[in-house]
Amino acid sequence: MAFWTMHKGKHTNKRPNTMTGLSLFELLVSLLILSILSLLTVPSFQRWQEKNAFKHFATRVTELAKQTRIQSLAQQKTFYLIAKIETDNCLMVSADQDCSCASYQTCALNEASYWELPTAWNTKLRTVGSTDKTVAFNKHGTLNFGSNTTFTLSSERFNAKVTFSSLGRIRLCSEQYFVGIAPC
Fold it and tell me: Domains along the chain?
């Protein structure tokens, strides 16, 4: 490569005494440092992905519960939040108490009111006794039975609860810190 230098008003085509650039050793050292840094960030990136997926899981369960209550108030009739967790692993909103995951197309309120629970990161929705649960909201938006109920949500690292009060209030709380979710 030619470098132009100026000596006393003349242009000369003179090559510098030193070569510029990276040696192979410097390149290998920088690649080693980069690979070590990437190995350190992969676990935290996976934790971040799990945390975001769990937050979506928890807020989606809460949204379906609120949708059930709103539908019961708007249409002035009983709607059900049905959690099929023993075999089917789904959650849905329906006016039919006997709706199942297999027949959701005919009995679920709409496509948005049916949700298959995710299996990534071992996410689970549990009820009291780990059985299928139907939460009924009457035309006043309150629960048909006189007691509170709770859905427990968990993954490999995170836990949360969705609590339904007898007055129809739905509360999501988490045992870990999440932006936008209250602590339990």
Answer: 54-183 (3.55.40.10)
DSSP category for residue 117 = P
Q: How confident is the model at residue 1 (pLDDT cuts 50, 70, 90)?
A: very low
Q: Would you state the pLDDT for residue 18?
A: 65
Task: Please name the helix (run of DSSP H) or strand (run of DSSP E) that holds residue 4, with its range, or none.
Answer: strand 4-7
Over 50: is that where the pLDDT of 42 sits? yes
Bridging pattern class, strands 79-84 and 90-94 = antiparallel
Q: Is the pLDDT of residue 113 over 50?
A: yes
Structure tokens at 145: 């039975």
* Cα angle 76-132-82, degrees, rounded to a multiple of 5: 25
Which value, in Å, is the radius of gyration of the alpha carbons in the chain?
30
List, for residues 156-183, the tens digit of each pLDDT value. 899 999 999 999 999 999 998 888 899 9
Q: Retrieve residue 125's tokens.
A: 């929705």
Report whether 115 contacts 142 (CB < 8 A): no
CB 132 within 8 A of CB 85: yes
**Cα–chain-centroid distance for residue 27?**
39
Q: The tokens 């807020």 sit on which residue?
A: 59
CA end-to-end span of the chain: 68
